[in-house]
Predict the structure.
Amino acid sequence: MSQGIEFNRMMLDMRAMQMDAMAQKSAVQAPAEVGASSFSDMLGNAINKVSDTQQASSQLSNAFEIGKSGVDLTDVMIASQKASVSFQALTQVRNKLVQAYQDIMQMPV
């Protein structure tokens, strides 16, 4: 599978998650719907996807380093950048969550 297709799939997944989050935000829901994913589940899935991306990048890099046939330098660099961008995005989300928590904790009761 080419890296372009994987990138497109990742973008489609991110857009789908965004649409799900917007739908959940706009709809008034019962506190505990059966089968509904919670925020912690969504965050956990995002963390797992970033981890998978980093592991795939590491494996591709190791395969290139040992000279495995069929591994191209451009694929290694693209995988590395994809892992880097996804980790930076996750870090920014974490920073925003921490800032929101701090803002809420500083509100007068």
